[in-house]
């Protein structure tokens, strides 16, 4: 494979392809490039972010069809083959003979690796075991002391998924503070965010040929940089007393306050107006899935706020106002809010 040519072709579908490792580019050139081109011909864009219900259903369908073709008797054996050492060779041979990679990703316009991880999350029986007991938390600390970040090994010992044990450990590894943020903690958070953003800018500068850009970088970190995805696990380590989700929520609060110059945009009459405008705009969009929402456009419905702030407000709206919202599709949730909640909000206003 000509790596430069593969990167150039993949860049059309994945803007950050130049930053992906060579080994990953080789895999993507084999597994994804042809699929991406076919989707492009159909007028379908490559997608990222949260999987839709439709995509989850397609993954389930693809897995079930592959099981029926090969005779492998469970999704766990197919996706967690290493748990079955005696059958591993046979299963891997069937996966190769019946083009597992191609079959699993059928009809889903996403990188294969993300589809595979999603399938593992859906079908892992260790992924839905409820809250951790006190004994499990102590075991997790003990196993981490022995095996470090070998989450695969720890997950097998705990009979929990890799993701579950890694996330839980990030919450319990230190004396996490759940109370109000102190001035020192807030300062640490802001410093940590600044460090990771500056590091990202320096990397971009190293790759940039524009001397003007480099000479003016220190003058301004633009709004887009402040709002985009940040490495929260790294920031968590720098803050020390909060886990990553707390850091993210606090940063959104800080950013919102800065961007709105301290105005209360979501209280009293303004809160009612924001909810009404948000519901109306979402209904006008006539979308079938939350992944299709242009949150960047929607944030101006509330004011000059971060995208994550708008997403959080919408989440709270559907959870508090829509009964059995988990069982409803995105379009059904919007219709319910428009037909039932909107008249009530307008009357209150």
Please provide a written account of the structure:
This protein has 349 residues and is mainly alpha-helical. The chain folds into four domains: 3-123, no CATH class; 134-173, Arc Repressor Mutant, subunit A; 183-206 and 221-260; 268-348, no CATH class. It contains 20 helices and no strands. The chain has helices spanning 3-11, 22-31, 33-41, 53-70, 75-79, 88-97, 100-104, 112-123, 134-147, 151-158, 162-172, 183-207, 211-216, 223-227, 232-239, 244-259, 268-285, 295-302, 307-321, 330-348. Helix 1 (3-11) packs across helix 2 (22-31) and helix 4 (53-70) packs across helix 8. Residues 211-220 have low confidence and may be disordered. This is TTF1 factor. One of its GO terms (molecular function) is chromatin binding.
Write the H/E string, N to C: HHHHHHHHHHHHHHHHHHHH
Number of helices: 20
Average predicted local confidence, pLDDT: 81
The end-to-end span amounts to 62 Å
Low-confidence stretches: 211-220
User: Could you describe the largest sheet, including whether it forms a barrel?
Assistant: none
Say how many strands there are: 0
The radius of gyration is 23 Å
In terms of DSSP E residues, the strand content is: under 5%
**Can you give the helix content as a percent range?**
55-70%
Shape label: globular
